[in-house]
Amino acid sequence: MRKFRKKPVVIEPEQWDGGWHQKGICSCITSPRPHLHTIHDGQFVELTKGDWIIPEPDGKHFYPCKPDIFEKTYEEVVE
């Protein structure tokens, strides 16, 4: 079986703090707390405070990442 390693890529994510964002915030019947709605890979995604918003390599698309997964996947680049 072939094995692959994820290429090291430096990203510039944004952690949503629950405030205003480019896409706006929503407080609807599905969740009374402030949250963002987005579509990723054809699926409806709800971002909540503390989630990371990560840019795709093309710089035009973004995907959400929960804080625990982000911590396991990325390490801060100190320059």
Class inferred from helices and paired strands: mainly beta
Q: In angstroms, what is the radius of gyration?
A: 14 Å
Assembly annotation: single chain
Largest sheet: 3 strands, antiparallel
Report the principal-axis shape. Answer: globular
The SSE string, one letter per element, is EEEEEEH
Domain module count? 1
Query: Distance between the terminal alpha carbons, to the nearest Å?
Result: 37 Å
Tell me what portion of residues adopts beta-strand conformation: 35-45%
Question: What is the helix fraction of residues, given as a range?
Answer: under 10%
Strand order in space, largest sheet: 1-5-6
Q: Show unreliable segments.
A: none
Average pLDDT works out at 75
Number of helices: 1
Describe the structure in your own words.
Helices cover 9% and strands 35% of the residues. It is mainly beta. It has one domain. The strands form two sheets. It has a three-stranded antiparallel beta sheet with strand order 1-5-6. It has a three-stranded antiparallel beta sheet with strand order 2-3-4, with no helix packed on it. It is globular. 5% of the residues are buried.
